Amino acid sequence: MPAAVPAPALPCVLDIEASGFGRASYPIEVGYVLPDGRAACMLVRPAEGWTHWDASAEQVHGITRSTLCAHGRSARDVAEALNRDLAGLTVYCDGWAHDYTWLAALFEEAGLRAQFKLESVGALLDEAHLNLLDAARRQAVAELGLQRHRASNDARALQRALGAVIGRTLAH
User: Fold this and answer.
1) Superkingdom of this entry's organism (predicted)?
2) Which fold is adopted by the domain 12-171?
């Protein structure tokens, strides 16, 4: 009897919610899901120079600036936690241009260097399978019963969608 082929590991996925878009925006929440399914989510307390706030972004993620000030962790605490949990990993995101900029702002404020690599999901999938990702994500959101647009929820849905798409890729 041939040995069973192990299922492909799910990629580590990260998502960032921000104060808005554009040059003055900054990270306000970081969520990630590890390959084994463990997840974490951290609110980021705005640093002194981080003043931009976009009310339309707040309507999407539902996080108020006062909540961040009261319950957020410092950029250094969040950066240290990310380095501890993600060290040596390639971590995937679906909004690389924004997420990379926000992650860079977080680590710059913390005075640290990321000990992991942030990569676009496009590095995992060819164009045909990348085109399947949005539908797979909508299905994952429905299957998981996610109601809130938050970083860890978005990361979990993306990881599940990637698993479905990668599973299709490996099955054919």
Assistant:
1) Bacteria
2) Nucleotidyltransferase; domain 5 (3.30.420)
Q: How far apart are CA 24 and CA 22, in angstroms?
A: 6
CA within 13 Å, CB half, 21: 6
> Do 122 and 155 contact (CB within 8 A), yes or no?
no
The per-residue pLDDT string of the chain (172 residues; one tens digit each, 9 = 90 and over) reads 555 545 557 999 999 999 998 889 999 999 999 999 999 999 999 999 999 999 999 998 999 999 999 999 999 999 999 999 999 999 999 999 999 999 999 999 999 999 999 999 999 998 988 999 999 999 999 999 887 778 999 999 999 999 999 885 443 3
